[in-house]
């Protein structure tokens, strides 16, 4: 249990970048590493930990946030390039209340790690009134969000319920 | 009885992002952990020098095996793995030391500062070596053999006399990754003589006990805190990959340390499903009754056994227990190899057994001329049976499951479709509800607390990886007290605040936690009834509990008031404890005995559509019928089945870990074909409920059996649809196409072609690779490989004109244009691109122009995003372009990715990107790992040189067919190149460092043609295995213009000129189309694994040509 307090020091300094970001309506000036992704900045600098780091390569969707209303992968978005309005799950709590309640009723989450990403992605669809009537098309639009637990069917039912239509509605069995 | 649907107790927090996972917990100043891993598959550690790492800036602790007690993980009965390598390393990535520092960079630097001297040891034989015909049978105790087993059940002699039919085969269920959405993360903190641990797990108590033992503490000194768990599936029910390392670092540093694995670590270094091969023989008599099975099960352990012995044991028992048999002889071996180790995985050997048994049953039915479902029903395990392995089946609805599946899938009508490309298949399974292997799994405790405010709380030590196991405790307690599940507060997980529970595993969660909670809930209810009976002077049996009230005749009182009035209420709470103990004897080494208190059954029927041209299996529908007794949590149960079926469809159709030089090569979600939403069909779940079993209210296990039948049902359906049986999972297009084309001769190139010097040279190289060239290049050549340093931090340039952009590109070294950045950032991480001055083109207005010019040409600015292009193409009568874009990645990526970025993306070769010092990455002295590695899916079948990669851009395929011209501007000049000439190699362009693509022009004439695009991929949004695009116009019955382009088949987009020539001016007759579609194949020069791509690409071309002709003539 040797403590090496005397040697505590930061690594070699890299000149930091500074970005002004509109996150959930709050405009914040954040100083960050030049390589920082939007996800790092949200989680580590702004303490918004609803978006998750699942892969870090834009493949799983657990980090999905909206930039100007469009779902993007925050883990492959350079923080210093973000110009638009960022919305995270924290900022979408109220707007997604119906959808989230439907997630609960349908069992559309299990471990929940991918869930904020799904909810954010689907929130954009619901906001735009753009939930495809055809299940295959709806599922195709969910291609950016992996879920390892649910097999997706309950998520499809939940977004249908939130959209208020039964459309192609899948069977619960 | 039917239980109501109940919402998960934590639904708000788990849907709104506020549920804390281990990575979200923010203690004060946690240190960052990092691991030093072995670069060698097998070596002796001669010396470890950590002195300079300890002196590195910000470092608080460095641990090696010397810091830990000399103990091994207990895991599942074969304790052979220490937490850090002790003396030898056994696989690439083996943990040698760990570091805790203040920042991730410091931790990484300190890891790099640890000096280890290794002495190479001979590599153990590979698993494939044990599978070769004539391989030496393993001996117990021999080098490389971890576990062996040889068991006989039933009456072999009597059985032998009745055998009339025999079927044999080898069935392989390859290694699958758990791929939990939350990567392994442990936060450990040492404070006041106790170790606090936050770690995702389905077994908090097992983690507590094992972590304590591994670091030399008493169990009670470790507190595992409740924390949300982002999936487990067996991967972290016991510590193994990060937990103990974080704990050891925390203790040594005297503070908090978080150790987090990356997704690549997750795929490369953590547990996975053991690779299983089952050599199986099944026999039956003349009346269609099963007689016996003989199985030899081969299991790859990897560096350590972990759960290998356990999974072998269970696999063998299922082989001998499923259906009524007279006898079974099961042998098995778990092999050590120098690959990372397998571990517990949902199903624990059961799915592997079921795949073999149920595939073979269909083969037997075929031989018997029997209906597969009739055969299964005739031989099904029924209530009251004792299997030859000693399993006492106290409750079975297997027959009903099979009958229901038959009805729901419309079996009898659909069996008539045989050979039509559409087919149905069935498979059944049996599974335990807990396996009684040691004292720790045989009991569970629960406490119910009734508050004088009317509150009801249940405490259970179970975890919740998403299965809702604690909710089961709430549901059964609520049922006893006349409440609903949502009325009960559930306290779970935290080892300081809950009683003992063995956690999930072997499908015992519902059974154990449920029975413990049921006992405590029953005691609480009895007590309330007693109190009310006394108060109102009525018999206790007449007291009813309902809606928080206790009713006695006309009187009633609330639970809270009754509790307040009870004499033994302490601090306003009445508590009831219950310990549930399973009374079965522990597993016998002979394997004979009643392994589980009760057994679950299932039958799954699957309908598939098989594309003979591409070998793609489309699962149309799954009917999953389960006998899991009473369904306590219907919402959760449906979720377990649908999720389990989806996970098993992954194993059946796409998921496999690919190794190269004993390292996992496909360590990311792009290259690991896990099902996306569109890949999972409609799954109908049916529960045949019953309450005659000994589970809580008659409930049995469910989560694991949901996987078991799926792969065999799919294989059986595929065999029914196209007459090809695949016994080697996953059933990928290459395997089906190869089987469907077995026996048909490969096209022979003309002599002139065969004597082409370049082709001869490549053939000679390929010939030499397995004969020593690969070894020389791999062992020797890579020593001269270019070394990649971590790229410098990004400097962003944001020009607003093209001139400024080209000036910025030319101004310094290490510049590169930046589009959406969705791939460029990744390639920097992967070490394949090192540029750090990134010139952002998305701010240059000119580059975002997207319009039809007055001449009708399509002008596509290079910085136009893919989703914008798709929308525009759809609105402007270019459906093939829109369709192409729609197949690329995902909506989130298409929203950011640009056209030029897509065209210029680096090759996706898993070896190149996965850190192998390959020819392209390391230089000319290095091998192409694809030549001898797995190259079936993403490598070339034509025109490859020393590198076998392909250009991954689908847009390049379609835009080539559309005669797109690329306009390029550099500092001093502008030029235009046809898209086909943009590429000089796989994902490599002719662009100079100061040049940017400004735009592409698709000529109006090309837009007027009819264009059809088709792509074969392993999952929705996946990269093309083969892509085809045909663009043509017809006049009357004649094709006037034609372009035929293939993607995924050659290093660059390939124009099938021979096809175009045959079609140009030709009449549109059917046979002409087939001949033309194959005309290019004389140029093919496939690797052994890409031979299948040639007929596939031809068939896809033919289909595109036909579709284009039909559409063009309609239009």
UniProtKB/TrEMBL annotation, chain A:
Protein's UniProt name: (2Fe-2S)-binding protein
Presence of keyword Iron-sulfur: yes
InterPro entries in the record, alphabetically? 2Fe-2S-bd (IPR002888), 2Fe-2S-bd_dom_sf (IPR036884), 2Fe-2S_ferredoxin-like_sf (IPR036010), 2Fe-2S_ferredoxin-type (IPR001041), 2Fe2S_fd_BS (IPR006058), Beta-grasp_dom_sf (IPR012675), Diverse_Oxidoreductases (IPR051452)
Q: Which Gene3D superfamilies match?
A: 3.10.20.30, [2Fe-2S]-binding domain
Q: Which domain of life is it from?
A: Bacteria
Which PANTHER family does this entry report, sorted A to Z?
OXIDOREDUCTASE WITH IRON-SULFUR SUBUNIT, XANTHINE DEHYDROGENASE IRON-SULFUR-BINDING SUBUNIT XDHC-RELATED
User: Mind listing the UniProt keywords for this protein, alphabetically?
Assistant: 2Fe-2S, Iron, Iron-sulfur, Metal-binding, Oxidoreductase
Which range is the signal sequence, renumbered to this chain? none
Domain named 2Fe-2S ferredoxin-type is located at 17-92
What SUPFAM superfamilies would the database entry show? 2Fe-2S ferredoxin-like, CO dehydrogenase ISP C-domain like
